[in-house]
């Protein structure tokens, strides 16, 4: 019987006297078919090493271990370490570390625990309350994850996948789509969890872009420009850029020249610009000595 079977999950929690911690956003997935779907979405094979964030009692970890070469799971809740030691005892290709992903040096962890001969993927059921910080941490880690398959709140998944022009398209959409191709793989009903959350979830697959035609020459500036452009969504790109770079006559003249150079209307709102538009805008700003 798989760990994610409702009966077995109840038995494990009862044996250890465990309840979910709201402070850690714990919701145990008790739907074996969905757990299998997550692993299948990641296209796992013996050619892959996997980083899992928040293994819980090992329901998803079990599926990963059955398909991947090696699994490294980061669990912040010390109460779950003896549980994982028991539930995953038969899997010799799993290592569990009591670490907080937001405080970990992921590049060092990967180097120390994987052999460097396999593709590295992230597969996880993310806590709702820190989904965005974790996603950004993964992308900023310097690790070239070939694929990231994560379950998250459906509302956040929609923001990640949003297209230009959408009211939910924003800096998060751009930060992720700049590096990764986004696909909403599956919607997961709240009834699949214990305890049951208030909203539905979604499995999102992020696949690293192999050929980034449009690359920001200065990626820190790119991030700054994107965030600044969305600082006040209801304002025009022009007003947000002035707030970002200053309202001097020289700045206004430089921004006018830059926007003309990249053929972007100053009166447009940031939500209308594509990732490519932001790359072109950033590179033009970087090339202008007055900005």
UniProtKB/TrEMBL annotation:
Compartments it resides in: Cytoplasm
Q: Coiled-coil intervals in this record?
A: none
**InterPro entries for the chain:** KsgA/Erm (IPR001737), rRNA_Ade_diMease-like_C (IPR023165), rRNA_Ade_Mease_Trfase_CS (IPR020596), rRNA_Ade_methylase_Trfase_N (IPR020598), rRNA_adenine_dimethylase (IPR011530), SAM-dependent_MTases_sf (IPR029063)
Keywords, A to Z? Cytoplasm, Methyltransferase, RNA-binding, rRNA processing, S-adenosyl-L-methionine, Transferase
Q: Where is the Ribosomal RNA adenine methylase transferase N-terminal domain?
A: 34-210
- Its EC number is 2.1.1.182
Q: Which family does it belong to?
A: Belongs to the class I-like SAM-binding methyltransferase superfamily. rRNA adenine N(6)-methyltransferase family. RsmA subfamily.
Q: What is this protein called?
A: Ribosomal RNA small subunit methyltransferase A
Give the originating organism.
Loigolactobacillus rennini DSM 20253
Taxonomic lineage of the native organism: Bacteria, Bacillati, Bacillota, Bacilli, Lactobacillales
């Amino acid at each position: 019987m798989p760990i994610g079977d409702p009966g077995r999950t109840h038995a494990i929690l009862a044996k250890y006297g465990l309840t979910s911690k709201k402070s850690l956003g714990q919701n145990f997935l008790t739907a074996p078919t969905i757990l299998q779907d997550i692993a299948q979405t990641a296209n796992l094979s013996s050619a892959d090493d996997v980083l899992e964030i928040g293994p819980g009692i090992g329901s998803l970890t079990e599926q990963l271990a059955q398909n991947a070469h090696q699994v490294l799971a980061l669990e912040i809740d010390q109460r779950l370490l003896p549980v994982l030691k028991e539930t995953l005892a038969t899997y010799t290709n799993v290592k569990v570390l009591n670490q907080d992903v937001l405080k970990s040096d992921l590049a060092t962890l990967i180097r120390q625990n994987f052999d460097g001969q396999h593709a590295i993927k992230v597969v996880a059921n993310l806590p709702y309350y820190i989904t965005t910080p974790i996603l950004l941490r993964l992308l900023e880690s310097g690790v070239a994850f070939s694929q990231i398959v994560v379950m998250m709140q459906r509302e956040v998944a929609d923001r990640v996948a949003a297209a230009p022009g959408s009211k939910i398209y924003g800096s998060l959409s751009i930060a992720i789509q700049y590096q990764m191709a986004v696909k909403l793989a599956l919607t997961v009903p709240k009834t699949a969890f214990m305890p049951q959350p208030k909203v539905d979830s979604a499995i999102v697959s992020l696949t690293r872009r192999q050929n980034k035609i449009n690359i920001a020459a200065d990626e820190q500036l790119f991030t700054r420009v994107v965030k600044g452009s969305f600082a006040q969504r209801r304002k025009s790109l022009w007003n947000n850029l002035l707030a970002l770079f200053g309202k001097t006559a020289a700045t206004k003249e430089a921004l006018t020249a830059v926007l003309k150079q990249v053929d972007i209307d100053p009166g447009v709102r940031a939500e209308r610009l594509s990732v490519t538009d932001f790359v072109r805008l950033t590179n033009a700003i970087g090339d202008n000595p007055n900005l």
